[in-house]
Amino acid sequence: MAKKNNNSRQPVLHQLVVKAPQRRTSDVGEWRTALRAADTGRVKMLYDLFDDLLIDGVLSDAMQKRIDAVCNSELTFTDADGAEVEELTALIDTIGFEEMLGEILKQRFYGRSGFEMEFPIEGGLHVHPIPAKHINLASRCILINDSDEKGIPYEGDPFLCVLGKERDFGLLLKAAPYVIYKRGGFGDWAQWMELFGMPQRVGKYNTYDPDSRRLLEEAFEKAGSAPWVVIPKDSEVETRETSSGSGSSYNEFRQACNEEMLITILGQTMTTVQGQQGARSLGEVHKEVEESKNRSDLRYVQRVLNTYVRPMLAARGYPVEGGTFTFPKAAEPLSVSEIVQLSDILEIPASYLHEKYAIPTAEEGEVIARRQATTMPYEYSEYPETSDNPELSETSEKPKPSKGFLLRLWDFFANAPRQRGAIQMATSGSALTLSEGATMEERLIVGVAKGEIKKWSPELFEHISQGLLKAVRTGFERPLNNADQPLSFEYGAKDDAFITAMEMNLFRFSAGKTLAEVQALNEAFRASKSYEEFEGKAEKIVDTFNKRWQQTEYNTALVATEQASKFHRLRSKANLYPYWEYRTVGDDRVRPEHTLLDGMTLKQNDKRWEKLYPPNNWNCRCYVVPKMKFEVTFEQLAQGEAVADEYMRSDEYSKQVKNGWAVNRAERATIYEANQQYVKEVTLDKAMEKLHAQDYGLKPYEEMKKDAAPNPIPLFDGDPKDWYEQKTTSNPLRDYKGRQITINHKTFMEHATNDRKSREYRAQYLLMVEETLRNPDEVWLQRMDGGIERKQQNKKESKLYFDNLRFIKFYNDMVMSVVCKPSAEGYTLISWYPIQENIHNPNLPADQHPKIRYRRGLLVKSSREAP
After folding, report:
1. What's the rounded Cα separation, in Å, for the pair 768 and 203?
2. Residue-wise DSSP of 752-792
3. Contact 616, 622 (CB under 8 A)
4. Residue 341: which H helix or E strand, with range?
5. Could you give the C-alpha distances from 207 to 221, 230, 232, 235, 238, in angstroms and in order?
6. Which of 138, 178, 255, 359 could serve as a FRET partner for 344 with CA atoms 20 to 30 Å apart?
7. Could you count the other beta carbons within 10 Å of the beta carbon of residue 55?
8. How far apart are CA 561 and CA 623, in angstroms?
9. Is the preceding omega at residue 615 within 30 degrees of 0, hence cis?
């Protein structure tokens, strides 16, 4: 039985002279002075400064988040046999024990912490925190006065627990300058608002009537504190705003300070302040960073409890011998779809689901809401006609399995199981059906088995590309520019070109992956002896391609776009952050080679970033942290350069180069390099060249024109130079995603003025250009005109921005084509013309006929359903 009563020992806390912290206006100079004093052992000034700065809500909330994560976690004490000890369970469930967990974690923030345990006669536990400025780690004592040098020894005292290391002043030391800067910035901002934020009143008086001036002045003085000026009627007052007239620079500075504080305490920002709009996946990555910090905190607290607190409890008679404090791992929450999948292999009680989702139990006779599966018959002749035996009749015997593709397929279905997932089949025949809820993977497998999918699957291409595009949309989401979104910044035309180029890179990557997956499925089909064997192989293939590899590719694309966004944002603030520091997330999953780079600091324009800017491998989670000038020394820069150079001479770096890493994707506008694609570029170009509208199930030209809205064709009858002026100034040209399109002056003049007589007539289509870009029926990603040979000659351009986007819109009488391309100048308009202008040209080769030529490549958008 535990001894719950205290002895005659006088509590240490009652002997301390605890004084309120000295609160005053602080600057960075005072922070440095306090730090120098703390380095010599006098910590009072530094910890008084910390307590004063904790008034800041962002900083205190970030600290509390880490403390709450520990206090809200399940904690148990188990004996040597793994059973919970009831007496310790009751102790853990006290307010005093929760306060003790918070005091233990405060060591992370202050660099030291201490508390005194008291066991009252009535039971339970009281914990009394010891102020950090009263803890002297050098002399191992508790100071009675915070300015003393000696005090009460704490070593060997069974009621005192003191944590920390000398010259460690915690995370608050790093966060303090940003709080000080933020306070000063707020003060300057408030002064600016007082001077310039209020409306100015102007009073005009008659020059020949001096009494009217005096009356105006008296009226203004009595009418409030807004600024005013009194001038003669014949005078003029002009007010000019500076470049920061809106005060936005103050707000940006405040946001930067908050961001650095959050990164210092939490390792990220998005779980505390609102980030980019709709950036759910991005927020999940930030959440992973925060959870890695929380796991580290839990391990630290658990070790302190077992190393220091357990012996203290043993001294009070608690049954802790052989037992341990443990934070059990919480079970991950399951989605509905995951529960459905687990129900195939686990017996899940219905009562659990009713309770979990608050679903009432159905009464007898009550109608049950349930999705009814419908089947779609697979029309297939039981005795297929083949080239080997064209005379085969209904009375013939079953074909031999060695005769042709259709015969092998017949064997597959004859031997198939009755039901596998959404694929169903009658055992007595060959009628294959797919339920209404069949997945894309199931349709793909059946399509390959039927011989309908041999080289290309539009549905698979859309599934892969749209999944990866979510990463780009998340990383480059355009947030509003307000105080609640500290990461926001405005994109311009060149940024639209950059984002478009990265999306085009993903489309090409997805096309190569589609070709590779379809090929793998067909090879598995040809190598299988039964449908059941093929289905087993196919399920493994689609699981590998569409789940395991897709998840890795998505994570990499998300980090690449997020870091690219950060790269351009920080480049625009180079005057504020001239240095960048390489960081890892710091958990046990970090690669050893990336750990070597952790803390490496370089100038933001250092050429080494072209090789080392993250991500630097699949699933890499590294990032950079901006640094102000005063935060970096020449020694740190020299050390960072040495670390970078040594790493780039290593064998590991050579492997990175070979595998397509060691490049700055933020500068190259790519996510996946050429040697990271599933197929070679030349092979992919040839395959894209052979993909036409019919491969996507699209209707022919004439049918699409008939389906078009019967609105009259909008023709432009104004001056094209006026249209150009408008689209390059007040009303920019934009596509269906709202991205701004630049117009090259020379290109426009060649297409729309007398500078090129053969194209002068195209000016009448300028309104159709706007409509086609804003609301296209089809958008195709295609190679540059001239084919592969021309692309190889222009390697420099194709390495960064490759391929065109062709926008097509169908009218009743014509088809409009507009071509755009991202380039170093921006997202640029290349050409526009009606497709039927060359439709009867007899000199064109068959494969260059407009009906085929203009609707080929990768279909990245279609507003019409397939027939």
Report:
1. 54
2. HSTTSGGGGGGGGGHHHHHHHHHS-SEEEEEPPTTHHHHHH
3. yes
4. helix 336-342
5. 20, 11, 6, 10, 19
6. 359
7. 11
8. 12
9. yes
Quickly count: other Cβ atoms within 10 Å of residue 462's Cβ. Answer: 17
Residue whose entry in the numeric block shows the structure tokens 């910590």: 43
What's the order of all strands across the beta sheet hosting 826-834?
A: 826-834, 815-823, 804-810, 778-782, 858-862
- Integer CA distances (angstroms), 390 to 381, 385, 387, 402, 413, in order: 13, 6, 6, 15, 21
- Beta bridge partners, 126, equal 118
β 160-164/201-205 pair status = unpaired
- Measured CA to CA, the distance from residue 119 to residue 128 in angstroms comes to 11
**712 exposure class (CB count in 10 Å sphere: 0-12, 13-18, 19+):** exposed
In this structure, the chain runs to a length of: 867
Query: Rounded to whole angstroms, how far apart are CA atoms 169 and 304?
Result: 19
Supply the pTM of this predicted model.
Answer: 0.52
For residue 785, is pLDDT > 70? no
Angle, alpha carbons 424-427-433 (nearest 5°): 25
* CA 653 – CA 575 distance, rounded (Å): 31
Tokens of 11: 């509590």
Average pLDDT, the chain: 76
Stretch 526-538: mean pLDDT: 87
Kindly tell me if the per-residue pLDDT of 668 is higher than 60: yes
Helix/strand/coil for 741:
strand
Confidence of residue 490 (pLDDT cuts 50, 70, 90): very low
Could you give the CA distance from residue 461 to residue 859 in angstroms, rounded to a whole number? 9
**Helix 440-449 with 458-475: angle, nearest 10 deg:** 150
Asked if 436 contacts 442 with a C-beta cutoff of 8 angstroms, the reply is no
Residue 256 vs residue 321, higher pLDDT: 321
Coil, helix or strand for 509? helix
Closest to 621 (Cα-Cα) out of 311, 290, 167: 290
Token pair for residue 688? Answer: 């894209």
Torsion over CA: 107, 110, 116, 117 (sign)? negative
What distance in Å separates the CA atoms of residue 541 and residue 544, rounded to the nearest whole number? 5
| Neighbour-count burial for 343-359, b at 16+ CB within 10 Å, e otherwise | eeeeeeeeeeeeeeeee
Side-chain-side CA neighbours of 783 within 13 Å: the count stands at: 21
The whole-angstrom separation of Cα 56 and Cα 579 is 26
C-alpha torsion 20→265→610→563, nearest 10: -130
- DSSP at 546: I
The residue to which tokens 């003669």 are assigned = 232
Contact 53, 92 (CB under 8 A): no
537 residue type, one letter: K
Kindly state the DSSP code that residue 203 receives in the 8-state scheme.
Answer: E
* Kind and range of the H or E run holding 610: helix 609-612
CB 614 within 8 A of CB 607: no
pLDDT band at 790 (very low <50, low <70, confident <90, very high): very low
